[in-house]
Amino acid sequence: MGIIGGGYMGKAHAVAYSAVGAVFNTRLRPRLEMVAASTRASADRYCAEFGFARAADDWAQLVRDPRVEAVVIAAPQATHRAAAELAFSLGKPVFCEKPLGASIEDARAMTASAAARKCINMVGFNYIRTPASQYARKLISDRVIGDVTWFRGEHTEDFLADADTPASWRTKGDSNGTMGDLAPHMINAALALIGPISSVMAQIETVHKSRGGEPVTNDDHAQMMCRFDSGAMGHMFFSRVGTGRKMGYAYEVTGTKGAIRFDQEDQNALWLYKAEGPEAERGFRKILTGPAHPDYAPFCQGPGHGTGYQDQIIIEARDFLEAIADDQNRWPTFADGLAVSQVVEAARTSNSAGVWTPVQGD
Amino acid sequence: MGIIGGGYMGKAHAVAYSAVGAVFNTRLRPRLEMVAASTRASADRYCAEFGFARAADDWAQLVRDPRVEAVVIAAPQATHRAAAELAFSLGKPVFCEKPLGASIEDARAMTASAAARKCINMVGFNYIRTPASQYARKLISDRVIGDVTWFRGEHTEDFLADADTPASWRTKGDSNGTMGDLAPHMINAALALIGPISSVMAQIETVHKSRGGEPVTNDDHAQMMCRFDSGAMGHMFFSRVGTGRKMGYAYEVTGTKGAIRFDQEDQNALWLYKAEGPEAERGFRKILTGPAHPDYAPFCQGPGHGTGYQDQIIIEARDFLEAIADDQNRWPTFADGLAVSQVVEAARTSNSAGVWTPVQGD
Amino acid sequence: MGIIGGGYMGKAHAVAYSAVGAVFNTRLRPRLEMVAASTRASADRYCAEFGFARAADDWAQLVRDPRVEAVVIAAPQATHRAAAELAFSLGKPVFCEKPLGASIEDARAMTASAAARKCINMVGFNYIRTPASQYARKLISDRVIGDVTWFRGEHTEDFLADADTPASWRTKGDSNGTMGDLAPHMINAALALIGPISSVMAQIETVHKSRGGEPVTNDDHAQMMCRFDSGAMGHMFFSRVGTGRKMGYAYEVTGTKGAIRFDQEDQNALWLYKAEGPEAERGFRKILTGPAHPDYAPFCQGPGHGTGYQDQIIIEARDFLEAIADDQNRWPTFADGLAVSQVVEAARTSNSAGVWTPVQGD
Amino acid sequence: MGIIGGGYMGKAHAVAYSAVGAVFNTRLRPRLEMVAASTRASADRYCAEFGFARAADDWAQLVRDPRVEAVVIAAPQATHRAAAELAFSLGKPVFCEKPLGASIEDARAMTASAAARKCINMVGFNYIRTPASQYARKLISDRVIGDVTWFRGEHTEDFLADADTPASWRTKGDSNGTMGDLAPHMINAALALIGPISSVMAQIETVHKSRGGEPVTNDDHAQMMCRFDSGAMGHMFFSRVGTGRKMGYAYEVTGTKGAIRFDQEDQNALWLYKAEGPEAERGFRKILTGPAHPDYAPFCQGPGHGTGYQDQIIIEARDFLEAIADDQNRWPTFADGLAVSQVVEAARTSNSAGVWTPVQGD
Ligand SMILES: NC(=O)C1=CN([C@@H]2O[C@H](COP(=O)(O)OP(=O)(O)OC[C@H]3O[C@@H](n4cnc5c(N)ncnc54)[C@H](O)[C@@H]3O)[C@@H](O)[C@H]2O)C=CC1
Ligand SMILES: NC(=O)C1=CN([C@@H]2O[C@H](COP(=O)(O)OP(=O)(O)OC[C@H]3O[C@@H](n4cnc5c(N)ncnc54)[C@H](O)[C@@H]3O)[C@@H](O)[C@H]2O)C=CC1
Ligand SMILES: NC(=O)C1=CN([C@@H]2O[C@H](COP(=O)(O)OP(=O)(O)OC[C@H]3O[C@@H](n4cnc5c(N)ncnc54)[C@H](O)[C@@H]3O)[C@@H](O)[C@H]2O)C=CC1
Ligand SMILES: NC(=O)C1=CN([C@@H]2O[C@H](COP(=O)(O)OP(=O)(O)OC[C@H]3O[C@@H](n4cnc5c(N)ncnc54)[C@H](O)[C@@H]3O)[C@@H](O)[C@H]2O)C=CC1
């Protein structure tokens, strides 16, 4: 493996590829071959700390290195497209962190490039991979809660809630705003759980318009109402100023025969209500994930013992490796990442125009 | 007291006026003088069961009765306006259940009539009177959570979630739909907690379009995004098909320095987050209501011992009696009920037009 | 009705007898005839505030008054026995607050007196009357959770957690200590839910041995292990220094086929786990009380709308009135109160002796 | 590393030693050198699956192998002592899963052997290593909740709740019963959080006395009251028949100035109550673990993102490696494991004798 970036996600992927073989008994056993970072010093540090064989201060060097057989892009959005395109041109599989590039054009180009070169490609929507959310998907598609009538999702955190936090790269550029950074996770969840979105009506805004005297040029929070192709009605909210919320990736799905609730802040529990049995015994049940749920057993034989953030990345790594081994893409591919970007794009248009806006396929 | 209606709410008010004196040591000590219902038989039954002195099968007879000094309207929306107008013409105070009349015209006329006759008037938004929600109001107005940036409210129940429930009066007529029946409670909460709403963007729909072969002519669920005068952004959702939700009157208020969460299904708890103190010690705290919170102590000296639905109606009765004793209106008056109806009206317009719609004052 | 005491519980009963007729359509319709308190001034104040016809500064005067047809004792433990015995000697029904008298001898004498005179008698264990706890009883006796193997109960509050709270009558005398004051509620619950207790092993202690220089002569917290006649194992804990707990009347019942959890701090929810159905769907379900649960519907037609502390006292009042109307005792009688006192007694003996101690019947 | 056992815990340790270097940037970078199992076939399978270099079907071969520099014992209790003693005789550091050996004699011998040979030794109490429980320890030792007055702990699971589960090695032998298998984790927590236990009063029993016709010879659940050296009172409960509980490692600590609650089923939350500030604002706060809490940051930079079961084992591996690197034991050593075994022993004695039993140091 070659991993571009050794920050928050670069490290997470390095750990994941160290552990994934032992956890999932994968056919391919990855080696941490090379890490790239923006400086030589940091690349060397990551190399030593995470246990890579070699370091590069240039992502292109990493992508081109013959011993790097697969590339993980865990660097800022601006690098995604060029790195992916180069890798595809060399026929190498690429895993790219969300969102897919810095713009919808990037997402389109990256998806097209992957398709043209028929390379394995995957985008990093990790939260949907918890055993609980995978199981929620299954319950919904098995129609345990009947027809879905309502979906409410949010991805809320509070890392910029404090007005005194100074401006930084995070407060500049669309792709670093809430719609660029947080929304994709929950939009992806909506698409995975309920299906395609036909139109949206959004409101996007900057709460703290300047920080430390510097203007903030991207959005702090945003909401959108949406209509799914299935007819279901929905709403999503995204915020990086959601005081008190730390990992507010949460959703509620209401169906004609039941309902599901989930909150990533208690990621090992899924709440299920079934409209069956005597009225007096009905209620939301708190299901603790365990070996009976998707991808849990390899982590622990005991139910309720729990998986965590890092484990999502390990599941992701397993899927990427298996896709490579099978030479067969696994969900979510770049095309799925692009579908998310299309919803984001429609939301931006809707916000400007103040009207319901259809989501454009490509 | 004279109470029009002896059903769900008629009984609740009858119990409330039986108990309110002992609970709150009110200056006025009400007598259950007369109850009116749509039939003689039911009126007589209510009279005996709830302990009224006399019964009437005609609301006008009750309103006109000289020994009825104050009128509570707890009959369907269609009776609200005429009963209130008659009472005001006789100079009698009126408490009217929400919503104010069957249409915005009714609400306007009733408010005008109350003002013209300078009669005491009050509208029945009981949920906002729990100790927890009163305390939430206080926390927000004391700026404990800073500037409010986001409000999310819902009023969700599931009494019509089952598609097999047959059509009835509930499934006919705007004022019995979700926007007419449930939305007013949460809109009132939004106005009380955050302040006036300047514009809304709504989506209103009927999920089960026919029941037992009969068409359903009002809405099952609805959502709206809103902008408050203060600049805060908001969202509300209302549903009578919210499978699993029994009393889903719930809200979240995010501010720059804290946040509040409340769910009526656990009405004795208020969740408060304050962005202060060491990061490691921060978290939403679950405050159990007790004597330190508004209107709790008269019910019980012990914190955490809890109040219930009926107690809200007793608090409401206290306010109505005190308003009469002082000849000074107490919140929420008909004008406040009208303000709610104006938001509902704007939502209906927005839903039809598909655009953001300003809320029109009168 | 005549009510002895107008404090915490005296008021609660006054409110309850004002409301009970309207709520439950009881055959007997009580009148608030007379209230007694320790001083003339306070008795007069209670009389006016709660709406009694007359006041007495002597409980014996109240008991003897010919228009007082039933007596509620809501004064301190020291008055219970004499007041009850006098009432029984006059053939009057008596409702007595828990615990039954100031000592086990009192409890025995009161029970014997009630039996000898064949008078209606009831003891005030209100918490077990919530719809949730009544339903828990039913679930257990219907064997929904199979054979009970384990019971854990607690009654914890924190009104004396602060070491700086000065000494008072509460900190003196066995019957005002935690074993006298709080333990009876939960012991009664244990007996009601699981059945008779055969033996106990207890530990009773005073945490803050002096307050403001004055010695504390009763217990702050206590625990006991117990064995039920059924063979089930159990544990109870009682505390008035349980920092953070406001109404910690909570229990967990584990059975061979399921489990139940309840906490009075969220009194409208009962948690039920059933070991049936696919493993992946199992979990504790949070059942919100509603019209499908015992004694809920008369308070409100809507599920999840909730009852509160005062409503328990109303249910209790209904039972007392119905017992009188039928001339047939209803649970829990003085004999049930005595059974609780016997467990308390065994716990005290066990604590002193440091060994398992059988619970002595009388 | 050489790991004895490739089952539940053997795998967990294999994964942990694969990941720990990248997560914690440890000085020592372990290699998965050899795995031993009870058969050649299983050892070979583990070797391939987890990525070991070599396999052994004999633990002694593994311990003696010169390239195995440190030994992890993750095989059944019966192997612990002999394996540890052999390793110490060769001067190798040993990590041993809980409980320490199959009997208190084993625990004593192992501890003595470690001391005699001055070898690094550690025992596998992983649950206390979550960021939440480490933080709870810190809060208590920083006296944030004042003096501890009450501790309640439980370790409850339901893997043998079903009476139809057949007898197996789990249902035979003291060290596989609840006191042997589950109790040590929570006793260790009690010692870590509150301090030494001076005496206990226990009740230990077998709920399902036979399974599939075969007698069950060890305990299904057990409870004990205890007195800590500090004077605090406590209670613990352990069960493998705790229907509905999956990972019920839970505790409550009450102090004079606050309280703490924790439940491993929601391992990323710690509940803290502080008796300070206005009464109206007090409540248990739900603190989500994050980078501000011990050992969280290396797993994820985002608070609330969560750690899981496997991460505890990684933290444990870090401590073992650091102990080796420093040639300085880290908590918990074999001596700490022995202290736990001494409490278990006192509990067994108490259960037989029916009296309070002092915990014997060695
Ligand atoms: N899936 C998830 O939960 C999360 C995903 N992300 C995504 O991961 C990506 C990386 O974000 P973070 O790890 O938070 O950033 P970070 O700032 O922590 O780390 C970025 C890394 O990229 C390296 N880098 C920057 N420019 C480079 C270049 N030109 N060539 C080579 N290396 C370069 C830096 O040296 C650094 O090591 C982003 O696309 C972000 O959206 C970020 C956080 C969470
Ligand atoms: N605040 C709250 O939580 C709630 C408020 N409501 C409101 O209370 C009002 C009554 O609703 P419910 O009690 O649910 O209805 P219901 O159907 O239970 O009772 C209606 C009562 O009105 C009487 N009535 C009907 N027409 C009458 C007439 N022409 N003259 C005299 N009496 C007449 C009926 O006999 C019956 O006793 C409505 O405005 C409703 O929106 C209803 C439920 C909850
Ligand atoms: N079921 C429950 O939840 C509760 C039950 N209780 C029980 O209720 C009883 C009363 O307790 P509280 O109401 O808390 O006490 P309190 O101190 O609030 O009120 C006691 C009342 O008794 C009156 N009183 C005292 N001595 C009297 C006498 N010799 N003659 C006539 N009146 C006299 C006082 O004037 C006062 O009105 C106790 O037995 C207590 O154990 C108390 C609180 C809660
Ligand atoms: N800390 C924790 O959370 C847990 C700790 N444990 C402890 O871990 C230890 C192992 O338990 P599990 O992994 O559950 O057992 P397991 O039955 O899943 O695996 C036992 C392993 O030991 C191997 N083994 C057995 N006898 C052997 C021998 N003579 N030589 C070499 N290998 C041998 C087996 O081949 C197997 O791989 C026990 O001491 C247990 O108490 C177990 C589960 C959880």
UniProtKB/TrEMBL annotation, chains A, B, C, D:
<feature type="domain" description="GFO/IDH/MocA-like oxidoreductase">
    <location>
        <begin position="134"/>
        <end position="261"/>
    </location>
</feature>
<dbReference type="InterPro" id="IPR036291">
    <property type="entry name" value="NAD(P)-bd_dom_sf"/>
</dbReference>
<dbReference type="InterPro" id="IPR050463">
    <property type="entry name" value="Gfo/Idh/MocA_oxidrdct_glycsds"/>
</dbReference>
<dbReference type="Pfam" id="PF01408">
    <property type="entry name" value="GFO_IDH_MocA"/>
</dbReference>
<dbReference type="InterPro" id="IPR055170">
    <property type="entry name" value="GFO_IDH_MocA-like_dom"/>
</dbReference>
<keyword id="KW-0560">Oxidoreductase</keyword>
<dbReference type="GO" id="GO:0103074">
    <property type="term" value="F:glucose-6-phosphate 3-dehydrogenase activity"/>
</dbReference>
<dbReference type="Pfam" id="PF22725">
    <property type="entry name" value="GFO_IDH_MocA_C3"/>
</dbReference>
<dbReference type="GO" id="GO:0000166">
    <property type="term" value="F:nucleotide binding"/>
</dbReference>
<feature type="domain" description="Gfo/Idh/MocA-like oxidoreductase N-terminal">
    <location>
        <begin position="2"/>
        <end position="125"/>
    </location>
</feature>
<protein>
    <submittedName>
        <fullName>Glucose-6-phosphate 3-dehydrogenase</fullName>
        <ecNumber>1.1.1.361</ecNumber>
    </submittedName>
</protein>
<dbReference type="InterPro" id="IPR000683">
    <property type="entry name" value="Gfo/Idh/MocA-like_OxRdtase_N"/>
</dbReference>
